[in-house]
Amino acid sequence: MNAPIDTADPYSHAQDAATRLAELTGVDSHDVALVLGSGWLPAVDALGEATAEIDTTDLPGFSAAAVAGHAGKIRSIRSGDRHLLVFLSRTHFYEGKGVEAVVHGVRTAARAGCRAIVLTNGCGGLKDTWTPGTPVLISDHINLTGRSPIVGPRFVDLTDLYSSRLRALCREVDPSLDEGVYVQFPGPHYETPAEVRMAGIIGGHLVGMSTTLEAIAAREAGMEVLGISLVTNLAAGISTQPLNHEEVLEAGRAAASRMGDLLGRVVPRI
C-alpha cells in the first residue's frame, strides 16, 4: 500500500512517481498523457503499440481503481515518434481521498515530460440531440466542487484552459464534433432534475463528476489541455429513464470504434 500524498508538497511527490514511472516503463520522457474516463476503455487499443503496462499501485501516491469501467492500470504506448502515457483509471473527488489524490496523475504526467494532456469522461448531456455515444469537445467548465488543486498563492489564468488550438485540430479530423461547457458536480450520486436545470441556466451543457480539477492542475503545470466528453445518457429530467452506471459503460462499448478512431487520429498530431 502506497503512502498517502504529502499534502504539504504534492509536487515533489509527483516527481517521485515520475521517476519510478521511468524506471518501470523504460521511457525517460513521455510526450502526451491521456486520462480515460468511464466508457472510454475500449478505445485505448487504437492509440498504438503498448510498450509497458503497470498497476497504478506500483507508483507512489496512487491507489487502486475504485469505479467499474476503470482498469487501475497505466500504459506506455508508442505512437509514431511519440510516447503516450495513458491512465486507464482516475481517482474521483467523491472517493474522499483529497484533491491532491485526484490530480496526482496529472502532476505525475507533467513531471514525466508530458506537454499536453487529453482528459476524457463519460457524462450526461443537456441537449436532447446528443444521443448516447456522442463525443463532445469541452470548451470550458464550471467547477461546483468548491475546491481547487492549486496549493498556495499561485494565480493561474484559465481563460483558454481547454485549448482552442486542440479543439480546432479535432474538428479537422471530425468536422461533426460539437462542443459545450462541462459542469462538475461532487457526486457520487447523479444530479437531480433541478440541479440539471440549474446547470443549464448557468451555461452548462454537460454534467459529470470529474475532469475540472485535473484540468486546472494541468494548466498550472503548463500543459495544453484537450477535454472530450462522451455523452453516455441524457441528464436527469431530460431523460425519462432512471440513471445507472451500467448504461455509461454500455454507451462506451457501443461507441468504442468511433472513440478509438478519433483518439487515434488526433493524438499523434498534438
Question: Notable features of this structure?
Answer:
globular; 24% strand; Rossmann fold; alpha/beta; 29% helix; five-stranded mixed barrel; 270 residues
Can you walk me through this structure?
This protein is of the alpha/beta class and 270 residues long. The chain has a single domain (10-269), classed as Rossmann fold (3-Layer(aba) Sandwich), CATH 3.40.50.1580. Helices cover 29% and strands 24% of the residues. Strands 5-8-7-6-9 form a five-stranded mixed barrel, surrounded by four helices. β6 (134-143), α3 and β7 (178-184) form a beta-alpha-beta unit. α1 crosses α2 and α2 (99-111) packs across α5 (212-220). The radius of gyration is 17 Å and the shape is globular. The mean pLDDT is 90.
Q: Can you tell me the CATH architecture?
A: 3-Layer(aba) Sandwich
Q: Helix count?
A: 7
Percent range for β-strand residues: 15-25%
| Relative helix content | 25-40%
Mean pLDDT: 90
Name the helix and strand elements from N-terminus to C-terminus, one letter apiece: HEEEEHEEHEHEHEHH
What's the end-to-end separation, in Å?
Answer: 35 Å
Shape: globular
Structural class: alpha/beta
Low-confidence stretches: none
Which strand order does the major sheet show? 5-8-7-6-9
Main beta sheet strand tally, sense and closure: 5 strands, mixed, barrel
What would you call the quaternary organization?
Answer: single chain
Given this structure, which CATH class is correct? Alpha Beta
The fourth-level CATH homologous superfamily is Nucleoside phosphorylase domain
The name of the CATH topology is Rossmann fold
